Amino acid sequence: MIPIKAKEELRMLKTSGEILGGVMKKVRDYTRPGITTLEIDALSEELIIKAGAIPAFKGYRGFPATACVSVNEEIVHGIPSERILKSGDIVSLDLGLNYRGYFSDIAVTLALGEVDPKIKQLILVAKQALAQGIKQARPENSLSDISHSIQEHVEKHGFSVVRQFVGHGIGRQLHEEPEIPNFGRPGTGPKLKSGMVLAIEPMINMGTWEAEILDNGWTAVTKDRLPSAHFEHTVAITDSGPEILTS
User: Fold this and answer.
1) Which domain holds residue 225?
2) What is the number of structural domains in the chain?
3) 29: domain CATH number?
4) What is the dihedral of CA 117, 23, 212, 216, to 10 degrees?
5) Is residue 36 part of a domain?
6) What string of DSSP letters covers 140-155?
7) pLDDT per residue over 138-167, tens digit each?
8) 2: in domain
9) Percent of the chain's residues with pLDDT above 70
10) Rounded CA gap, 212 and 232, in Å?
């Protein structure tokens, strides 16, 4: 059952998303060569708490940090550490918060300094794929229309879509129904309705779509150790079209 949010719930989710979007902007601007991923995590937690919210990821199913910071071949769920970022790295920042019982979720991938043109294209295509998916988040479309539009855009540029991790509904819980794969045939699955809120998040790889989990039990990496990119927005479906809550 996919929850339909009432008007007041949507208002609160929009506030939650606006706070998170502001936090992400500051964290993104702070991220640069020479700092550690742990410093990114510390700033993320400080900003979320200062805004009157609670980190959504810290302690969730045992995750030890506020931010997921995934570098190069890491797809998602990178655990912050004393690792120092360097020029040429790409970094995926994934943040979530709980504002007065309402959750929001966002992710971006950044290139630090000079990177290979093919890696720049990977990041651009991942960002474009998110935009393509969001365009399909309209009443009476099928859920898989989002999935298919992402896969089609990614694969026509020669990249691959991660299968093991998917987007999700979001609201009073961090993860709600439905699961939103980033691949599939169009026109299948439940019909989308005004009032649904979705965290749409394409994760795309330069090489194979296959992933492995590191020994820490969390961090997913590409099986071939080629780079990966990840973008995400929390999106409300409305009668007038998709509304990005985390912009």
Assistant:
1) 7-244
2) 1
3) 3.90.230.10
4) 130
5) yes
6) TSBHHHHHHHHHHHHH
7) 999 999 999 999 999 999 999 999 999 999
8) no
9) 100
10) 21
